[in-house]
């Protein structure tokens, strides 16, 4: 069939090409409509149903346990994702229905739950659906995001006390009366419970380099010199930010060309950071939220390399004057060095004092993270409270 369409495209004139393109668009829309009709039929048959918007495979890490708990409490789950990830989620969420996300705009659910931020409201929500957001990182929301990022959320679940204050300020700025629920952070709970991996045999102390995304990233600033400065003393795991791998193609190619065959170097580009986090003795980072995951789940310290701040809201002080948690808490999670020349002594010092850091990091975790070990349960509690506040009989299709 595909070969026939390609042949027609080669043989056809502009009018036929236009017709083929038009037909393809409408066939796609009909598939979305069919998905929406199926979802609505199931929603009307079983009103105790929530929708979850998971555009990328990595989003499952933040909501998996809470979705399982919702199923255990008698709720059905409809998952919405990009068409290319439908098979992945059908495999992972065996008890859930999985649909292409544009179909979600046609069905009025009592509640739509998502850890995603970059999508506009119109791309996945029906105007009559309540949308609940769970941050997919511990970083401060008022500095890293524009306030309008959260304009279409009716409720936000917070990872820690800093999120509660930031969300309240954001809702006030937007003139919204959204609800806030302190639930914790499932990703940290999952890493803390995971078993050590076998695919990273330890020959020397293991350093995990885990930079943030964007132009301020360690990877963008230093490239292959990141590895040059460390490889003689440590085994290195380099984990670039998974959702922007294409941005680092040139730097990663240079690093792999030089160290791809080195026994002490591994490049981790999987969509799951758990094995790398469990294998490492120390992390090197900048302003990435993964530093909280490593420090609070593993109780291991982090070396932060000073650099430009990650800020996408230049007016953040007018919104909420508190410094971003990923900036002000760096010395609670480890140590800060001015440049790469200071990294090796800092790593050696943190490894030598690791037992002292465990207690310090437990105390920091209790200050900055809600409900350690119970995030899935608290998230399910919040979703159930929000669901019960809605009229589940108002399901409809546009």
Condensed summary:
The chain is an alpha/beta fold. The protein has 18 helices and 13 strands.
Report the CATH superfamily of the largest domain.
CDP-glycerol glycerophosphotransferase, C-terminal domain
Question: Ends: how far apart?
Answer: 32 Å
CATH topology-level fold name of the largest domain? Rossmann fold
CATH architecture of the largest domain: 3-Layer(aba) Sandwich
Overall outline = globular
Topology:
Elements: H1 2-11, H2 14-45, E1 49-53, H3 60-72, E2 76-81, H4 86-92, E3 97-100, E4 111-114, E5 130-133, H5 141-144, E6 155-158, H6 161-174, E7 179-182, H7 186-193, E8 206-209, H8 218-222, H9 225-228, E9 235-238, H10 249-259, E10 265-267, H11 274-279, E11 282-285, H12 290-298, E12 302-305, H13 316-319, H14 325-328, H15 330-333, E13 334-337, H16 343-352, H17 354-368, H18 375-388
Parallel strand pairs: 1-2, 1-4, 2-3, 4-5, 5-6, 6-7, 8-9, 8-11, 9-10, 11-12, 12-13
Helix pairs in contact: 3-18, 7-12
Describe it.
- With 398 residues, the protein is α/β, with parallel strands linked by helices.
- The chain folds into 2 domains: 47-185 and 370-398, Glycogen Phosphorylase B (Rossmann fold, 3-Layer(aba) Sandwich); 196-368, CDP-glycerol glycerophosphotransferase, C-terminal domain (Rossmann fold, 3-Layer(aba) Sandwich).
- Helices cover 44% and strands 14% of the residues.
- It contains 18 helices and 13 strands.
- The protein has helices spanning 2-11, 14-45, 60-72, 86-92, 141-144, 161-174, 186-193, 218-222, 225-228, 249-259, 274-279, 290-298, 316-319, 325-328, 330-333, 343-352, 354-368, 375-388, and strands at residues 49-53, 76-81, 97-100, 111-114, 130-133, 155-158, 179-182, 206-209, 235-238, 265-267, 282-285, 302-305, 334-337.
- The strands form 2 sheets. It has a 7-stranded parallel sheet with strand order 3-2-1-4-5-6-7, with helices on both faces.
- Strand 9, helix 10 and strand 10 (265-267) form a beta-alpha-beta unit.
- Helix 3 packs across helix 18.
- The longest helix is centred in the N-terminal third of the chain and has 32 residues, at 14-45.
- It is globular and about 60 Å long.
- The two termini are 32 Å apart.
- Mean pLDDT is 88; it is low at 391-398.
